[in-house]
Amino acid sequence: LQDEETRKDYDYMLDHPEEYYRHYYHYYRRRLAPKVDVTIVILVTVCAISVFQFFSWWSSYNEAINYLASVPKYRIQATEIARQQGLLNKTKEKGKNRRSKEEIREEEEEIIKDIIKNKIDIKGGYQKPKIYDILLFQILLAPFYWCKYVVWYCWWIYCFTIKGQEYGVEEKLYIIRRYMKMSQSQFDSLEDHQKETFLERQLWIRENYEVYKREQEEELKKKMAMDPRWKRYRRWMRNEGPGRLTFIDD
Question: What residues form the membrane-spanning segments (predicted)?
Fold first, then answer.
């Protein structure tokens, strides 16, 4: 009876002894309720999500490598590099160390994939996973990231607002990325020639970006107008439509 909630139930029982089943319900509910710390539950949940994230990213990364290994352009380049480094010659051994064609083929495939991993920088959603990107480390490092952002923001205000310095390449690309509402990983996945086009057109200037945005929207409309799939869809919407209601009697 030292617990306040339990004491209230006890006093209520003394005042209402006729509510027999209600007293038993409250008694066993407190006795059988799980005594688990909420902090432990949250920690276990975050760890489980982090493990799932990490293995899911590894799976996506391996899928990207397998796909690139099947593309002739990258496969030929990787095979040529492997031959220059003498890696493919080691797979064809004779005598006691001779292996089956299947084993040789599997080893050559692994060599080609390793070269693709080392030579090609995959960006975006299929990039190589990093331990610091999972949820657990993001939560632990949140204060550090926040302090880093505050310092960076103060530096930006001091350099470009107070002192009026000109933007560098990184600063220009940052402004363009913010205008496009893209994440850092999405922007990094763009080709270098696309970023060069952004800089040539001076898209860090708001007026230039608005012109570029309208051009892209018009180009997208033209492509959709010429796309036969969109033509069929518009024809279907015009003739049938999704779930049209009518008041015509059968």
Answer: 38-58
d(CA 134, CA 56): 11
DSSP state of 187: H
Same structural domain, 79 and 113: yes
Rounded Cα–Cα distance for residues 213 and 53 (Å): 34
Question: In this structure, are 27 and 75 located in the same domain?
Answer: no
> Do residues 111 and 88 touch, judged by C-beta distance below 8 A?
yes
Task: State yes or no: pLDDT of 212 exceeds 80.
Answer: yes
> Is pLDDT at 103 greater than 70 in this prediction?
yes
Number of domains in the chain: 2
Alpha helices in the chain (DSSP H): 4-15, 20-32, 38-70, 72-84, 101-119, 135-140, 142-156, 169-180, 184-188, 192-200, 206-226, 228-239
pLDDT value of residue 113: 84
Give the pLDDT band of residue 238 (cuts 50, 70, 90): low
Query: Is residue 25 in a domain?
Result: yes
For residue 242, the 8-state DSSP code is T
Dist CA 59 CA 218 (whole Å): 38
Please tell me the distance from the alpha carbon of residue 205 to that of residue 248, in angstroms, as a whole number: 56
Interval 53-59 mean pLDDT: 88
Residues 190 and 61: their CA atoms lie apart, in Å, by: 18
Mean pLDDT confidence for 69-94:
74
The reply to whether 173 falls in a domain is: no
pLDDT of 59 over the 90 cut: no
- One domain, residues 54 and 86: yes
Give the residue among 46, 83, 185 at the shortest CA–CA distance from 129. 185
Do residues 59 and 124 share a domain? yes
